[in-house]
Amino acid sequence: MKKYIKFFYVALLSLAFFSCEDDEAISAGDGDPLGETVATVDITVTTIAKAGEGDRIPVTVSLGQSFASDVAVGIRATLDNGNQTQGSVTVPAGSTSATGSVVLPADDGFDSGTFEGESDYGTLTAFAILLDELEPNTSYVTNSTDASFDLLDLTLDVDGGLNVLFDWANPDINDLDMFIFDYDTFTQWEGAASGDRYEQDLFQTPGRPDGDYFIAVDVWIATDSSIPWRFMLTRPDGFVDVYEGTFENPSGLIFPVVEFTKTTDEVSGEITYTTNLPD
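and the corresponding structure tokens:
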């Protein structure tokens, strides 16, 4: 009989873990009718500084203690407009930290109208933990140190390659264009010169050889002597790499601004992109 009660209890906990709607953590043993001891686990959540609606962003959780079994940490992403999503990060047995990801609430038309976006518009909270193996006579609730991030007006969706978005300050008086070249031959593979606030281009996977590439910026009009810029590169896995800087007294063709490498796995055929700022 005890065996059936245990299985029923675990199933109930699993359901509660992803259906909790309030700020009370649901964890292994929480609400146990047998009156187990309830202990608090400190959890610190960290993430990137800037993101856009619908982005997949990395999440690192750090626990105040380790456990003998794997621990699933429930993560809730909340935007200031009230939209929420949930995910989880699994911390291996004996460890106190791990990194996973969560997908932010989908695009609902947010637009700050500024280059900076909206400061501290989103929050990540560790709202629950669930142990892979329940510990006798003990249950846990969370004390979360949340992570906040700025919300950008626009990032791009996954779209069959490396989806590149370029933004800069004061586009009404500064007109910048972008181009993608390979390092080996200096061949131009992509270009975007719309004259609008954003320049965007899809570095399509078909027909693009593996290798090292760089993004260059052509200064068409620079009224400001100092122009903050931002590149947002959406990879096929859904993560968005964000790079920022400032052009001082810009003119002509500026390169390399951002670098990336396209790689195809010889066995699986999987295509990946790694991105970085130049050394």
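(Above: one complete record from the training split.) The first helix runs from residue 2 to 17.
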